[in-house]
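Project channel, design review

CF: Before we commit to the Spirosoma arboris constructs, I'd like one complete example in the thread so the newer folks can see what an input/output pair looks like. Taking Glycosyltransferase family 9 protein.
RD: sounds good, go ahead.
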Amino acid sequence: MRQSVRTQKWSNDQPPRRILIMRLQAIGDVIITFPFVQLLRNQYPAAQIDFLTRDSQVSLVKNLTAVDNVIVFTDSHKRGWQLLRTVAILPGLLLKRYDVVLDLQANTYSTIIRRLLAPSAFTEFEKFTPFTAAERNFTAIQRSGLLTYFEHPILPLKRKDLGLQKLKEKGWDGQKKLIVLNPAGAFPSRHWPLEKYASFAKIWLTKYPNSQFLLLGVQKIAEKAAFLEKELGMNLINLVGKTTLLEAFVILSKATLVVSEDSGLMHMAWAQKIPTIALIGSTDKNRSSQGGTHIVSLTSDDLACGNCMKPDCQFGPIPLCLSRYSAEMIVEIGETLLANP
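CF: and here is what came back for Glycosyltransferase family 9 protein:
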């Protein structure tokens, strides 16, 4: 499938005064835009930078110091509600007279908004290319003329303490190195065996006793969390189902290392430049893996059946994608990441 990408480059000698960024969904894809939002703030400190996104992501975006205003789009996926919300927010957007619109969603509604705002410069996210989401975000913004290079920034947050009291109440003393374990892949073909998570943690703890393991995420991984809690005892803090999305994001900023299956939390870690081992599994490498010196992505790209996107492995109940990686191998990868910040 091909996409006709529309772009109009910023050609004014003066920097833009008002920039609108649009990324409506999904949570992980919205989070992947955050480093680019921060780079725009660094490049244009006097500009007003606004962000349009779905209601479920608003709290995350509002906590970025780089963003001035967040415009709320509906969480509904029904066309009628989305069209109604588009009509409702347009008058306010028109009054702001944006100089540049960065459409990092490129769907029907973001296209309508961009066309009606008629900015001096604009760009669109290219959906159908063999590159990661981060690379496509940068390429889109680069075409607008606003950025010429990408160096992953640190993300300053407005509220840095959210959720930390919950972490301390569960036994974190503020000194131990937090190692996040995240067995939250959506399908079996994206899972690393739970027994290997436990083995990894025990090996790591033997080598680095000033460590403490942490589980975050939604209730659907509660059974996995209970297994790991039984295996690791007091060395594990279980906050599964006990934090908001924003609290999890802030807590994650305190992590030393993240070992995560393909999920929103993995993208949270990448965006905040936390050393991350991304267990991608059967997901297409260009869909979920990201680049950078702070992340190692273990994909299935080297397998003949790789990038299959199937929820279950066609060759048996234990997918080769990730089960081939031993706990010792993940320890070694983690050590390499931390040795080369």
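RD: helpful, thanks. The radius of gyration is 21 Å.
CF: Residues 79-96 form the longest helix (18 residues).
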